[in-house]
Amino acid sequence: MFTNRKGQMFIIVGVILVVLFATLKIYYTNGSDVKRKQYLEESLEKGKFLALKQEAKKIVDMAYDQNTVTSVQNFFNFVNDKSYGKDLSLELFFVKANFSTVSNNTNTSMNVSVLNMMGKGISNLNLTFNGTSQLLSSLGDNSTYLTNFTFNTSADINYTLAVSYSTSSGNTNYTVSVPVILNKGRVIGFYDLALIGSSTKHQDVFQENYLV
Amino acid sequence: MKGMLKSLEVAISLITVLGFVVWYFNIETPQVEFESVDWKLKGLNALKAIDNRNELRKYILSNDTASLQSELSPYFPSTVNYTVVFCSATCPAVSFTSEKVFSINYFTAGDFGNITSTEVVLYVYE
After folding, report:
1. For residues B71 and B49, what is the distance between their CA atoms, to the nearest angstrom?
2. Longest dimension (CA), chain B
3. Inter-chain residue contact A51 with B110, CB threshold 8 Å
4. Which of A46, A73, A84, B92 yields a CA-CA distance of 20 to 30 A from A133?
C-alpha cells in the first residue's frame, strides 16, 4: 500500500516536520521571553517584599521609645491603602515585647503586644512566658492585644515567649527569643510578614532585638 | 499520467521546503513587553540603594525631591526622564507629555524622632 504512495508519504512527513519546527520555534522564542518577563516580575515583587521587610525591622528601632505597635500598624495600613491594595496584598502578624533595665533579683515586668493584620480574625491566642500562660479567645483583624509578664533573674538568661493561635487556615506556633542581660533593657519585634501577588507569595518570619 | 503526478509531488515538496525556509527565518513571534517591569525593577533598586546610604529619609524629611532626582541620575541613561514625588495621605498631581510612563513605589516609615509614613513615587518616562 505504502510503496505505491511513497511520494505522498514524503509530502505528509514533510508537512508534519514543518509544523513541528514552526511550533518549536514559536514555543522557544516566545516561551523564553515569557519566562524572562515572569522572572523580572518575580524579582520586582521580591524586591518590594525585601524593602518592606527592611522597613519593618527599622520601625522597631526608630520607634522603640514610642508606641511601636501603633507605628507598625500605621505603616502597614498606609502601605495597604496605597498601591499595594490594588495588585498586592499584605498579611502581618506582629509581636512586640519590651522591658526596661533589668536589676539583679528584682521583679521585672515585660510588656507584650500582639498585632493581627492578616486580613482575618484569629482565635485562641495563647502566650506562654516563664511558666505563665495567657489566653485570648479571639482577636479581630487590624486589632491589638496588650498584656504583660513578670520575670526575676540573678544572671543573664535566654527566655522564650511561646505564641500560638488558630485561624480558618489552621494552627500556628512561634517561639520568640527573649534574651535578658542584667542592667539592660530590651525591645523585641517579631514579624510574620507576607506579600501576596497575583502568582507569587513572599513570606518571612523574622525578629529584631534592640538593647535600650 | 504517472510522470505528471510525480512531477507535481516534487513541485509540492520543493514549494513546501522553500516556503518553510523563507518563513522560518522571517517569522515574527508575538513580542513580550519587558520595558515596564524592567524600569520598575531598576527604579526600585535605585531607591533602595539611596535608602541604604541613609540619604533617602533625609530628602523626605526636608521635602527635597530635586536632590533625590539628581541622586538618581547615575541609575538612568540620559535618554530617560524621571520625576519623584513624596506622598503622605495624598500625592501631588503630576502631568506628563509622554504616553509611556512607568511608576515605582517605595515606602518609608519615617526616621528617628519622626515616625511618618511616606510613599516615594518615581515616575520614569521617555
Report:
1. 10
2. 97
3. no
4. A73
Min distance B109 CA to chain A CA atoms (Å):
6
C-alpha closest to that of A94 among A154, A142, A22, A23: A142
Residue A99 is inside which H or E element, if any? strand A89-99
pLDDT digit string (tens) for A36-54? 888 888 899 999 999 999 9
> Strand, helix or coil at A180?
strand
Asked if A75 and A84 touch (Cβ cutoff 8 Å), the reply is no
Interface of B with A in 31-60 (CB under 8 A): 31-34, 37-38, 40-41, 44-45, 48, 51
pLDDT, one tens digit per residue, over B99-121 is 889 999 999 999 888 899 999 99
Taking residues A22-26, report their average pLDDT: 77
How many other C-beta atoms lie within 10 A of the C-beta of residue A134?
Answer: 14
**Top-confidence residue, B32 or A114:** A114
Report which of A118, A117, A38, A48 is spatially closest to residue A83, judged by C-alpha positions. Answer: A48
Q: What is the 3-state secondary structure (H, E, C) of chain B?
A: CHHHHHHHHHHHHHHHHHHHHHHHHHCCCCCCCCHHHHHHHHHHHHHHHHHHCCCHHHHHHCCCHHHHHHHHHHHCCCCCEEEEEEECCCCCCCCCCCCCEEEEEEEECCECCECCCEEEEEEEEC
Read off the pLDDT of residues A131-152 as tens digits, 9 standing for 90 and up: 999 999 999 999 999 999 999 9
A55-85 in b/e burial notation, b at 16+ Cβ within 10 A?
bbbbbbebbbeeebbebbbbbbebbbebbbe
Predicted complex ipTM exceeds 0.90: no
Do A128 and A147 form a contact (C-beta atoms < 8 A)? no
Q: Render pLDDT for A59-84 as a digit per residue (tens, 0 to 9).
A: 988 877 678 899 999 999 999 888 66
Mutation for testing the B interface, residue in A40, A49, A57 having most B CBs under 10 Å: A40
pTM of the model: 0.81
